[in-house]
Specification:
By secondary structure, chain A is of the alpha/beta class. In chain A, 28% of the residues lie in helices and 27% in strands. Classes of the chains: A alpha/beta, B alpha+beta.
């Protein structure tokens, strides 16, 4: 699913965001990328989405070599990814269901089926009653759930959620994490970044990817790998 | 095709977002396309006039009074390349023609004791070969003098040529201006929708999906301008034909229906093509902004 060998990410201003990252993550897993703010979690997500390219090393996501910078192929790869962005990136002036359908319009899915998937996804995130409400009028938590519905409605192979618990209180944050975890199955990998490690203490089935000062270490079932 | 409704709604949204600029773009495009139609119409009329004059181009050859039978010269002239008809005009016919031209003043011809006109040959030629034909006829034995109306023909040709050049210039100017206006409108639309475009890219949408509503906007704005220009030019030509036909009946106007059909086809197809092209120019800026 995700293979990284000696990957480094250096931004244009010279900041080294990640260095010598090595990963070999299998399909159908649940992964938490954890670490303090500014440690490189979002940078890792950007690399996996092809929004940034490695300065060095080899990075492959679902068979697509990101380091080769083939933008057209990366665009295709993104159709198999369900991203939940930190700032949601919903399309304003549209209803919740329109936003969810928008993520499927350019896929090879008939419109009727896309509508049904969108509706089901909104039911799954508990927002069916807000389907026809403009996203501009939704609360922070509701908007986040629309973003999750958009990510999962198209049944991606990889769900990438960047700091989904950002501004939520403890209970809502746990609910969101549980919701995201529920999408994990044999064919769907879920990767969540968060700096709130206390929220995931109970989740022992997850693989934890610790990011600290641009370097990573992996822990599974409480053991360092 | 499943997204056609979505594309139309998006195009409508982009137009509404900046509706004042878009209305002025449509009007501006309409007016410059109208200008194009006007110049092309004038070009068509002048080409028709020149074509007709070229067909009517003739020279007059006067032969020596000692020549008893001009038939040999007529035969020789008919063989010259560029000559398509030679006709003998006798002295009496020449006088009758002049009487016809003078009308009420023709009595002045009665002041002459004898008919002052001489017989001559009326030679119809292909205008583009006038120089060689003139030279050959002048060199024929028995020909005293050749009169041509080349200066007038050259002037008319010059006017037609100037209109043709003006036509090309106007076509170039209209094309460039329309492309600039439309690509600017599209860039504005892209700027206003930059967040949505970025999100769609991150979701994996292809450029064709992202760009199609903008192409539609360019097409609709310019085609709207083309329609406006077609309506204006139709009104103008219908009125112009009504007036010119009455006051200047000697101007050989091309068939109104054919002229209008040609102009409307040009304006609508040209505006559609320019709209799509302008949008594509505008869209090319997306690729420069963001690699993702």
């Amino acid at each position: 699913m995700i293979k990284a060998r000696n990957v480094s990410l250096v931004y244009r201003d010279g900041t080294v965001a990640l260095q010598n990252i090595n990963l070999n993550l299998h399909q159908g897993g649940l992964f938490y990328v954890i670490g303090p703010s500014g440690s490189g979690k979002t940078s890792l997500m950007k690399l996996l989405m092809g929004m940034e390219f490695p300065a060095t090393g080899f990075l492959e996501v679902m068979g697509q070599p990101i380091h080769k910078r083939e933008t057209a192929k990366i665009r295709k790869l993104r159709r198999d990814i369900g991203p939940v962005f930190q700032e949601f990136k919903l399309i304003l002036g549209r209803t919740a269901i329109e936003n969810v359908i928008m993520g499927m319009r350019f896929l090879d899915i008939p419109l009727q089926k896309a509508r049904e998937s969108a509706k089901n996804a909104l039911v799954r995130v508990g927002l069916e009653h807000k389907a026809f409400t403009l996203v501009d009028k939704l609360s922070y938590g509701e908007a986040q759930r629309v973003a999750i519905a958009r990510a999962v409605a198209r049944k991606p192979a990889l769900i990438l959620a960047d700091e989904p618990t950002g501004n939520l209180d403890h209970d809502n944050a746990v609910k969101i994490l549980k919701l995201l975890e529920s999408f994990k199955d044999k064919s769907t990998t879920v990767m969540i970044t968060t700096h709130a490690t206390h929220l995931i203490d109970e989740c022992r089935s997850a693989t934890l990817i610790h990011v600290k000062k641009g370097e990573i270490s992996i822990e599974r079932g409480g053991e360092q790998i | 095709m499943k997204n056609i409704g979505y594309f139309l709604r998006e195009a409508g949204k982009i137009i509404r977002y900046n509706h004042v600029s878009n209305i002025f773009s449509l009007l501006g495009t309409g007016l410059i396309l109208f200008l194009l139609g006007l110049v092309v119409a004038l070009w068509g009329v002048s080409s028709q006039l020149v074509g007709m004059l070229q067909q009517e181009a003739e020279i007059s050859a006067y032969f020596s009074s000692q020549l008893e039978d001009p038939q040999d010269i007529i035969n020789n002239i008919q063989l010259i390349d560029g000559v398509w008809n030679v006709r003998y005009v006798g002295a009496e016919e020449a006088r009758a023609r002049m009487e016809n031209i003078l009308g009420d003043e023709s009595y002045v011809l009665d002041l002459f004791e004898k008919n002052p006109f001489e017989p001559y040959l009326e030679i119809r030629i292909h205008l583009d070969q006038i120089d060689s034909v003139l030279q050959t006829i002048k060199n024929l034995k028995g020909i005293d003098y050749v009169r041509d109306n080349r200066e007038v023909l050259e002037q008319i040709k010059g006017v037609a040529r100037a209109l043709e050049i003006l036509g090309y210039l106007v076509i170039a100017a209209v094309s460039v201006t329309t492309l600039v206006i439309i690509s600017h409108m599209i860039r504005q639309g892209i700027f206003h929708n930059r967040d949505q475009i970025k999100t769609l890219r991150l979701l994996g949408a292809p450029d064709s999906f992202i760009g199609f509503p903008f192409v539609l906007v360019g097409f609709l704005l310019t085609f709207g301008g083309g329609l406006l220009a077609a309506v204006l030019i139709t009104i103008l030509i219908n009125r112009g034909y009504g007036q010119l036909g009455g006051t200047l009946p000697f101007i050989p106007l091309p068939s109104r229906d054919r002229l209008l059909l040609g102009l409307i086809t040009l304006l609508l197809s040209g505006s559609a093509a320019l709209g799509i092209l302008g949008s594509l120019f505008g869209l090319s800026s997306i690729n420069k902004e963001n690699h993702g």
